[in-house]
Every structure is written in C-alpha cells, then in structure tokens.
Design a protein that fits this description.
The protein has 9 helices and 4 strands, in the order βααβαβααααβαα. It is mainly alpha-helical. The strands form 2 sheets. A two-stranded antiparallel sheet has the order 1-2. The longest helix has 27 residues. The protein is about 70% helix and about 5% strand. The protein starts with a strand and ends with a helix.
C-alpha cells in the first residue's frame, strides 16, 4: 500500500485550511498582514509535506522481506555521516536536489519575517526554522521505523543544507529590508502589498 497526497486531497486540505485560516484571521482584532498571505503559506506548507513526507510505503511482512532480499545493505532508515550525502550530490551532479534542500524552508522564513515585520531577532528566526527542519527529519525517521521501509531517508546532511539555506535567506531578507527602508517609494509599495492600513 502506498499513502500519497493526491491532487484531490491537496485541494481538500487547502480548502479546509483556508476556511479555518480565514475564521482565525477574521476573529483577530489586529489584522496586520493581508489575507492573501495565509492561503499562499498554506499552499507552501502542503507542498512541503508532499515533498518531504510522502509517499509512504506500507508493505506486509512477506513483501517487505522480498524487497529487502539482496538489497539489505542498501536498506537505510537514516544517514548520520556529515557531508556524506553532500559529496554524493556533487559527484552525481544532483545540483537541483542540493538547491532544493537549500531553499526548502526559505518561504517559511519569509512568512515569519512578513508576519513579524522583521522585528524578530535573526538568531531566533534561524533557530525556530531550523527546528522545523529537525522535525521533518524526525518524522521521516519515525515513519521509516514504523513502516519498516525507508520511504525517505532521515539525513543529517538535509539538516545541514536546510540550516545553511535558512541562514542565507535571513541574511538576504535583512539586506533587502535595509534597501526598502532607505527608499520611501519602495517602502510604501511593499507596505501596501503586504500589510493592512
């Protein structure tokens, strides 16, 4: 059996999440950000779950034993050797996967920066988003051990690459914020797009 997030399930989850998001948004007295940011963030979260957690493979013991036969040594639930996967990415030319992991959590950082108007301390933003990366790897590990099949290998290098991407994103956003603050016209335009008056 394969559990996956189909396009139908994606649409249903998006619809329900958007309604719940709108109810919470409407109940708040101080609405800082414009509502369109919430559905955009929901789409990102659903895509993040789809990319990092699904598909999940569930097999009975006989099928699992058949799959493991001859590939037992390659059947890995986790990878704890730092830079082992990163070296493989470069040797195999898997630059798209490397870039994908670097920028995987960038929208999350952007959402936090927009919602807090950049008032959150840099290190706190980095730490909180890094915990999301750690949570993803832990969920992957739990799923692997629960199903007995490594759908997604929990990899320490994914954590290293994600955190590198988070740091890059925070630095770039802070530089962009400085440019925006120094130009009044751009500042007003950004304010109009992202925030309620």
């Amino acid at each position: 059996m394969i559990l996956d997030m189909t396009s139908e399930l994606f649409c249903i989850l998006f619809f329900l999440s958007s309604i719940i998001g709108y109810i919470i948004y409407s109940a708040k007295k101080q609405k800082q950000v414009r509502y369109w940011i919430i559905p955009a963030f929901i789409i990102y979260i659903l895509c993040l779950i789809k990319v990092t957690i699904f598909p999940i493979f569930i097999f009975d013991e006989a099928t699992l034993a058949e799959i493991k036969e001859g590939v037992g040594e390659y059947f890995r639930f986790y990878q704890l050797k730092p830079f082992g996967s990163i070296v493989n990415y470069f040797s195999q030319g898997a630059y798209i996967q490397l870039l994908g992991n670097i920028f995987l959590l960038s929208p999350f950082v952007l959402f936090v920066e927009v919602c807090t108007k950049g008032r959150k301390d840099c290190w706190r933003a980095i730490l909180q988003t890094s915990l999301i990366s750690l949570l993803i790897e832990l969920i992957q590990l739990i799923i692997n051990y629960t199903t007995g099949h490594p759908s997604r290998v929990a990899d320490v290098d994914d954590l290293i690459i994600n955190i590198t991407g988070i740091i890059i994103t925070v630095i770039v956003l802070r530089l962009v914020e400085k440019i925006i603050r120094s130009n009044q016209q751009i500042k007003m335009l950004v304010k109009k797009i992202l925030y309620k008056a």
